[in-house]
Specification:
The complex is a heterodimer of chains A (about 450) and B (about 110). By secondary structure, chain A is mainly alpha-helical. In chain A, about 80% of the residues lie in helices and about 0% in strands. In chain A, helix 6 runs antiparallel to helix 7, helix 7 packs antiparallel against helix 8 and helix 9 crosses helix 16. Chain B is α+β, with helices and mostly antiparallel strands. Chain B has a single domain, classed as Arc Repressor Mutant, subunit A, CATH 1.10.10.10. Helix content of chain B is about 60%, strand content about 15%. Chain B has four helices and three strands. In chain B, strands 1-3-2 form a three-stranded antiparallel beta sheet. In chain B, strand 2 and strand 3 form a beta hairpin. Chain B is elongated. Classes of the chains: A mainly alpha (about 450), B alpha+beta (about 110). At the A-B interface, helix 2 and helix 4 of A face helix 2, helix 3 and strand 3 of B.
Chain lengths: ~450, ~110
Amino acid sequence: MTTFADQPLEEQIGQWRAYLRRRQALHGPDVEELEGHLRDQLAALTEAGLSGDEAFLIAVKRMGSLDALSREFARAHSERLWKQLVIAPDAPEPAKTSYTETLVVLGLAVAAACAVKVPALFGLRLDGGDESFYARNASLFVLPLLTVYFVWKRGLGVVSGLWLALPFAAGAVFANVFPFRTGGDTEVLTALHLPIALWMAVGFAYIRSRWFADGGRMDFVRFSGELAIYYVLIALGGGVLTGFTMMMFKAIEMNAEWFVAGWLIPCGAAGAVIIGSWLVEAKQSVIENMAPVLTRLFTPLFTVLLLVFLATMAWTGSPINVKREVLIGFDLLLAVVVGLVLYAASARDPQAPPDFFDGLQLLLVVSALVVDGVALAAIAARISEFGFTPNRVAALGENLILLVNLAWSAWLYACLLRHRGSFAVLERWQIAYLPVYSVWAALVVVMFPPVFGYR
Amino acid sequence: MDMSKDLVAASATPLVLAILAEGDSYGYAIIKRVAELSGGHLQWTDGMLYPVLHRLERQGHVAAKWSASENGRRRKYYRITKEGRAQLAAQREQWRTVDGTLRGIWMQACTV
């Protein structure tokens, strides 16, 4: 190692290194490479007779402005997080979101808000006994309009637009022709699964012809995650608005509840999906994805949760209580784990060698597999004891689907950590698996009600 | 002589590839070689070389490997790949065209 005899020079290099490390666009090895360069330069300059201080000044000056440098690094490694924040100050203005787009989006959002109120014209009341109608059709109020937005934005022709209308028409038929028993299991299952099935149609509109190119579906995964985050943010704001509406009208002795419950919340919830999607689309060039950052944050926490849960269950020996909420809860947990793996994959540099975080991901996946195994055993025991119900079969199916995904992911992660495979394989696997979820959800919507006699 | 920024940036890729075609090298040595070849006329901001190298690595034109250097630190060595050589040949052709064109018109200007 080239160390320099005078201590102040080493200190100066240390400060310079720390300053470089704070740059988002520069990763550890880059800093090491640049530091190596600086030291070579310093060695040459001191050999030529310069003092340590002088040499340092010249070497740093020759390295160039750090802002310009990190901007170039961010451009060369465009997948690095927050890249646009780094580039922003000097980058040319992002293409202006056109005025027309704003109008189209606002129009579609208003249309979605109105769509929610259309059934009321036919006497179906949201607050009076027809909640189940609204639950089954919730996705049909919004997703077709969202698809229209993407058809318009991507300039898809009328023909592909009509093809995309098919799944929604089918969804509307299957959600409404079956003689459901109100509040029955199959009705709840339809309400839960229809959005998942139709989300694929939105995906088709979102990525156009790039469906079979791997990058396309990963983009849609990113979009979905971002939309979820934006939706939650908008909902928080909406909650504040709702609270103030109630409070202020109460102050003048008026009850605003009919407006809040009948108009503000349902119409706002529908319109927010369109607005949220627009925001995700519009800010693509402003900041990098938020979802991968949350993934990094929550992967360790979920790993700890699963491990502690398993340890507690092993310690106390208490079995899983198979109720509907519990089953849904476990399915959701596994879905979250798959989501964490998926979003970690979407943000990772496929060329990077495996690191500590990949090991953590493997631990997460393996512990999720064990939990899934336990849940599966509980469901199977329940089925063999009390027979098939729509809920148990749906939960069983979802569990198996997630189990297959996680098992193969665990294998691929293990290969990666032993330097036997590349990360690209894992990414391809996750992406190839995406349609399975939608196909299964469609199956639940179409097959379950008649098979289980609409209970 | 003050070179325009754009010209320096445009010549960076063929220059780096050509230097690596002489033999494997690392950042500091590449910069020194550039200064040597241009007689000090081509001044790069040292740091800017690295994004260029990383971009070439991504495009598969060069391959990089960390190994120990003579002073004990890790150092990233770059090697030109087959694709890089093809790219270099293509760039060479382009630069020759530009050079030939300019020469032609300047020769005319001299004789007039």
